[in-house]
Amino acid sequence: MERKIIVTSALIYANAPVHIGHLVESIQTDVWVRFQKANGNQCLYFCADDTHGTPVMISAKKAGISPEQLIDRVHSQHLSDLKEFHIGFDNYYTTHSPENKQLSELFYSRLNEKGSIVKREVEQSYCPKCDMFLPDRFIRGTCPKCKSENQYGDSCDSCGSIYQSTELINPACATCGAEPVRKTSIHYFFKLADYQNQLKEIVSAGYTGKSVANKLEEWFSAGLRDWDISRDGPYFGFKIPGEENKFFYVWLDAPIGYVASCKNYCDKNELDFENLWNSGDYELYHFIGKDIVYFHALFWPAMLLGADFRVADKLFVHGFLNVNGKKMSKSKGTFIKAATYLKYLDPEFLRYYYAAKLTDGIEDIELSVDDFVGRTNSELVGKFANLASRSIPMLTGKLDSTLGELDGDGKTLIENLTAAKKAIMENYESLKFSAAVRQINALADEANRYVEQNQPWAMVKTDLEKTRTVLTAIINAVRILTIYLKPILPKYAEKVEKILNVENLKFADAEKLLVNHKINKFERLFERIDKKQVEKMIEESKDNCQPAAEIKNEDSIEPIAEECTIDDFAKIDMRIAKVLKAESVEGADKLLRLQLDLGNCQKEVLAGIAKAYKPDELVGKIVVCLANLKPRKMKFGVSEGMILAAGPGGKDIFVLSADSGVKPGQRVG
RNA sequence: GGCGGCGUAGCUCAGUUGGUUAGAGCAUGGGAUUCAUAAGCCCAGGGUCGUUGGUUCGAAUCCAACCGCCGCUACCA
Questions:
Q1: Of A57, A62, A49, nearest in space to A14 by CA
Q2: Kind of pairing, strands A652-655 and A645-649?
Q3: pLDDT value of position A508
Q4: Which CATH architecture does the domain made up of A566-668 adopt?
Q5: Domain assignments of chain A as residue spans, ordered by start
Q6: Given pLDDT bands bounded at 50, 70 and 90, which one contains residue A301?
Q7: Protein residue nearest nucleotide B33, by CA to C1'
């Protein structure tokens, strides 16, 4: 009987590009979804970008664009990267959507009606200059334990200790450098403890695997605390109904994004959302990493329960990715972006490698570069692709491209292959992909041994029809192995289907035989990895690993600022100035020291334009100077004003000038 | 400090309820081949299964302590 299944993988945060760590989960989920589909089940895969919160807001500010522009751009990058890895979403949406807003408000109002929301005053760090509350990650300072400088507000990278941001020595706002103050505000809290008993029931009914359930047991016995679900503005997110400057915390609307993505899909395809999500007709599973178990095993099901939505049947939790025995590292070049990988290597190699490593457990998985290269070349290329390559061209070249029938030995081989189907499918179903890959490899070994024992290359010289019989067995083996690998290698499977002149192989086809059938010309299925490609990829990752938002983009247009009056403008005294002298500043690579003639006075200005202009180019030039700017003491001297310029930065800075005729000292207005 | 997890060949990992000489792939060495993407086949070396005790006829497997790594959490049991 056909199963109906809805699957989600964790939403990807819109602050950075997709990297090979994200891909563990995308690939795990996609393989499982493709397995379900190839097994004749209906399976829908929903995901989205997680777009709200302070980090997105600040990244957008840094890039000089609006958060909406940032998340739009990142959304298309994410989706195209993931699609290149053949992640077959049925819908990849965004949390910044009307559906998500409406659902977030619905969840909130239902939770509120149940009395699960309370208000309470909290005291937090606040940056008076940026005019906003600061999450711990946006406070930097000296670690109170080991005195390392420039550490995050919650923990120290250097000694690993955990502390409160108030304990930091010399705390500073990460964006502007100002010292944060403590400030109180009313926050909304979700009373998680109200749902403790229901959550315990869900867990004991098998919501998670055993090791995660143990972890949850710890949390239960420690007691469930209220969860702070509001943030004060400015905050990029959804406004809390009835509030002017309060927003839902990003983690409130993020998981609702699963539901919103489903809703959006239903609306687009004229399906009944209630039936899909709430009726119980569909099995419902979330794939997540172990870092977000707390949210998905406690907050999220509690929210669903409180808002009268259906809770998922199971949580599938995986571990982290390590590369060469260590956490992914930007300095080592192992923090590899999906886009960088794609420049050098075939996405199916990574799919295969991850599948070969993934189990149903929460252990971290290890990507060892040497192992990756070795395994890809020996298994994917040497066993699977080569099995096709050593049989199919012989049939097309010497035997009219036509398969014959099987003899006794051939039948034995094929029966062994089909007999393994059940166990392989069970391993796919229970997320033991590594076991499935092992089994499939053993079958490929058997098929390669069969080739060796029958020596079609010798036989073809003496007995063509017997050779056809042998090749028919081998090519049927190729076909069955392809079926087994198809969830992992969809593109490879497509190529094989084309060569074998068959359509859309499914698991049900493993019992069928392809006999007396004409096939197409062979094409190479994979190219082996040259280790140099991997080295280049790692080399490139060493430099090129800035978050997407920090990459300057020339055509990004900053949104127009808040309205101001003519009086506001009058405060700003801009004057025409002539550059009398320009010199580089020793020890500073971005600054030039300019001597400006302002008609009745001169000013010395330090301008950050050294990357764009040489000193000589500026001498004699007419520029616009902000003349009444408070002088600022800098490391290299006092700057008495600033000159106006535009552009994204670096080499692309353009100093404003004026048409001929103006005189130094004239006011701009 | 507390709780949890992990520790099997140079590397990546299997090892089902305790049961013959602990397995696979990669890497290494040798051999026979040559259809194939320097692929495939056969053979070999390589492990005190973190350490030490215990339970048992029998332990990689169960128990305890310790060591090492990782995670959560913290002066509160």
A1: A49
A2: antiparallel
A3: 95
A4: Beta Barrel (2.40)
A5: 4-106+248-342, 118-194+207-232, 368-509, 566-668
A6: very high
A7: A452
